[in-house]
Fold this protein.
Amino acid sequence: MKVLLAPHGTRGDVQPLLALARGLRERGHEPSFLVPDDCVRWIRDSGFPGEPNGIDVAGTFGSRGAAVASGRWPWRQFVDVVVPALFESFGRIDSHVDAIVGSGAQVAAASVAEQWGVTYVNAVFCPCAVPNDASPPPMVKTQALPRFLNRFLWEWGMPLAGLALRRSVNGGRARLGLASLFNPLSHLTRHATLLAADPDLAPLGDDAPLTVIPTDAWVLDEPQPDLDPRIARFLDLNPAPIYVEFDSMNASRAGELADHVVAAGHAVGRGVLMAGGQASLGQDLVDSEDVLVAGELPPETVLPRVAVAVHHGDAGTTTAVARAGVPQVVLPHVPNQYYWASRVERLGLGPRPLPVDLVTADVLTERLDRALNDREIRGRARACGPVIASRNGVPAAVEYLEELVALPGSVSD
């Protein structure tokens, strides 16, 4: 079985599909990738064929970080530039595949699969990405709404979002010789959707569409590199340090945020290990005995050795911290991260989340103090860690893909 994996978004949208690719290859299948330009080298270095889709997501986030962090992402840029580029990118690759799996903001792949006459599967990493009354649509920050209001927002929000996409998506479909769609988002829900999320961290609502198939989170199991000696020494601090990561989320006031984090770390008597990543957090800080700024760090190696993790609240980071059994303080940047922040608080894995724009040293100190010293939070995180770490949804996802491709009539209509 040849499977084209076509995620579009940040690293968090791509890494689970890399885990899926490894599972596919272990079963004798042939996965290949169509990914953002900034992910091509990563995919190829991981041993898989990968082609660029013509969009540098990391560069875009870097140049428009404030807009992204505040949720004011330029919709016209997405509709007029990104969507046409996504459609065009499929014209540069081999169409001889059996299935396409899309994720993130990949709005072209379902139409391409229809033209190619192959199976399409949508991968999502959060229940808030599919209609259900347990959580509102991903662009809604408030997570304590009554169920009827969540359902109302889905029923009205999807048609409005589909209307905003209609012109651009139908333009791409016309170039493929396909009929126009009234609502491109409703078209996506007709296809199978795999929810790759831990069932305890992110349970699927009872009223979700029948096309949504839950698996556990898709975890990228790979050998962990040896730590840089300076990082290893820092992790040996007593008491254990605080881990800080915002990955590709570029906060509008990153320098000020880094200063607040360091000040809060000093206030609770802990060193601060910053994983700068694409967010470039802490780039202006000078390393010291109690502050260390690193690049990307292997979470399976680092997280079990820290006292608490402070992060932005995406699906991958929240799951990785939970697997490590470490309390977490979530500072959500964009609306979909408020779902994970709410789940962390509700499950007792961390204190009440703090929106990134409200962060000050004093308020963050209070959150850290509770995460470090609240026995219920520490005990709950420690108890949940081994349970969540024992799960990996990749094998189930591979089996489902095998069954779906083999089913008569599974090809996109």
User: Anything to note?
Assistant: The CA atoms of residues 129 and 138 lie 6 Å apart.
